[in-house]
Amino acid sequence: MLKEKVEKALNAQIEKEIYSSHLYLSMASWAESKGFEGVSKWLYAQSDEERVHYLKFIGYVNERGGTTEITAIKKPDAKFKNVLSLFEAVLKHEEFISESINEIQAVCISEKDFSTQNWLQWFVTEQIEEEKSVRNIIDKLKMIGNDGNTLYLFDKDIMSMRTANATPVK
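-> structure tokens emitted (170 positions)
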């Protein structure tokens, strides 16, 4: 059985993971509308991965006898200056999610919920990989600048830079 504070923190994370999926969906749509097919595919895949994440959280809360709360999600940003600024927003969001996972870990420690703390370790590792992947993309975008030819090649190759570490739910 989940302790109340842990259940509350996990439900807050479910909301953040659902928002993450919607944010990346919005970003993918923006990229697609600007002709960045590769970037949009990368972001659609990220959106799908975030869906897997929130389903993992929902499943865990339910398996542990808790009550899952699905709340309204705020509207994500839909406009970006360019591809670099979009990925800088991705990194900022991933860092926010990493901090949130760390905060849940702290709640688990204070509540002596070592099972949930252990279960969350997969997400800690996932966030390290996500941040590294996005930082690599940002580094490449800064190297190539706004040159149309190199952005075209970047767009064609971005899926090869994607960390494919999503695992199916259950």
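Residues 164-170 have pLDDT under 50 and may be disordered.
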